[in-house]
Structures are given as C-alpha cells and as structure tokens.
Design brief:
Length: 196
C-alpha cells in the first residue's frame, strides 16, 4: 500500500456512513448528495450483481471476483470486506487524489471497512444510521422488493451484529421519520469540522 495522506486543513474530509441493510442509508445518502453537490461520493467496487435500476459507474463499479481479487493483490483498495457474501472495496488512489484536491468525501461502507479506514484516517467523521427496530428493518427490506428471501434472511442475520458495532461511530442517526433523519444527517455533515 503506497500512500497514507493525512486529513489536514487543506485536504478534504471523510464522512463515513454505515447501517444495517434496509435501514435507509441509500435513501439518506441520495438526499445528502442532492443537498451537497460538492461532496464527492465514493463509488465502491463490488462483485454483487446490480439491482434493478442500479447503474455501473453511478451506484457501484460492478466487477468480477477475479478482477476484485487482483485488486487485493495489487493493494488497490483503501479498504475491502466481504459483506453478505459479496466483496466490496474502495479505490485507494481515488480517495487519496480527491482528498488531496481538497474535496470532502462521502463513503457508504460497512463496519469492517470503517475499522480499516479509521486506521488510516482516524479523523474521519463516522455516522451510523439505525432503524427504529429490527421489525421495521425487516419490513423495509421486504417493501424495497429488490432482494429474494435468502438475501433478506442473510441481511437480517447480519443486522444484529452490525447494530452492536454502533458505538464505534461518532454519531448515530435513527431513521424513523425520513425527513427528520435527513435533517439530522445534513446538519451533522454541515457542522462537522466546525465542531470537531
Ligand atoms: P439501505 O440502503 O440502508 O439498505 P434503503 O435506502 O434502500 O436502505 O431503504 C430500504 C427501504 O426503506 C426502501 O424501500 C426505502 O424507500 C425505505 N425507507 C427508507 N427510509 C425510510 C423511512 N424513514 N421510513 C419508511 N421507509 C423508509
Ligand atoms: P448493498 O449490497 O446493499 O448495496 O450494500 C451492502 C453493504 O455493503 C452495505 O452495508 C454497504 O455499506 C456495504 N458497502 C458498500 N460499499 C462498500 C465498500 O466499498 N466497502 C465496504 N467495506 N462495504 C461496502
């Protein structure tokens, strides 16, 4: 691994958002991206198949397992993890270049990835999105209608473990009322850096 830039005043800042699947993270991040167009969104690489409506290069870079594993061997990922049976990773060079250009970054990654990023960038602003309850989480996963039963079962089984990692994060936003959660998240991003 070639680089470890520090996040100083001239560099951009990293915002990491994590949540158990179905908590509403994509919905909230989409709202943040609309509200803060200057915030660079880190498009992850994944071996997962695209969902209906997802676009390569916009939502993810969809790659083969072989290509992803070659990236591991070459040290291409700032972090990577196996999540719900698929591989996900963040391009190290893009993070380094974007921060060095002074742009803030929004990352949507899981708890394992957050731990790895915090080792490199301890000043990253970490935010955990929580559903109001596991029952609501299940309801949202079903309502979304994008995953089969086996996928929903895997994601629910992982949810408890992910929720137990919430204390790793500096901020917690409960996504019960969507408008309120959006406001809280945007306030956090807006004020982080001033308050931290
Ligand atoms: P994640 O990215 O965390 O897996 P999504 O953003 O895809 O979750 O949200 C899961 C489902 O829940 C979607 O159908 C979304 O429209 C819905 N949803 C998100 N937030 C809320 C909320 N506050 N109240 C009700 N439904 C929500
Ligand atoms: P989904 O398949 O629902 O889009 O994402 C599943 C999980 O993978 C989510 O928790 C999401 O945050 C996480 N994820 C997405 N991209 C990355 C990444 O680049 N690295 C890591 N570690 N997790 C990721």
């Amino acid at each position: 691994m070639s680089h470890t830039p520090t996040v100083g005043s001239k560099n951009g800042r990293l915002f990491i958002v994590s949540a158990p699947s179905g908590a509403g993270k994509s919905t909230l991040c989409a709202a943040v991206r609309r509200q803060f167009p200057h915030l660079a969104y880190s498009i992850s690489y994944t071996t997962r198949a695209p969902r209906r409506g997802e676009q390569d290069g916009r939502d993810y870079f969809f790659v083969s397992t072989e290509a992803f594993e070659a990236g591991i061997a070459e040290g291409r990922w700032a972090e990577w993890a196996r999540v719900h049976g698929n591989l996900y990773g963040t391009a190290a060079q893009w993070i380094a270049d974007t921060l060095a250009a002074g742009r803030d970054i929004l990352m949507d990654i899981d708890v394992q990835g957050t731990r790895q990023i915090l080792e490199r960038f301890p000043e990253a602003v970490t935010i955990f999105i929580q559903p109001p309850s596991l029952a609501v989480l299940e309801q949202r996963l079903r309502q979304r209608g994008t995953d089969d039963e086996a996928t929903i079962a895997t994601r629910l089984a992982n949810a408890c473990q992910e929720m137990a990692s919430a204390p790793l994060y500096r901020h917690i936003v409960v996504n019960d009322d969507l408008a309120q959660a959006q406001r809280e998240l945007m306030d956090l991003i807006h004020h982080a850096g001033q308050a931290d």
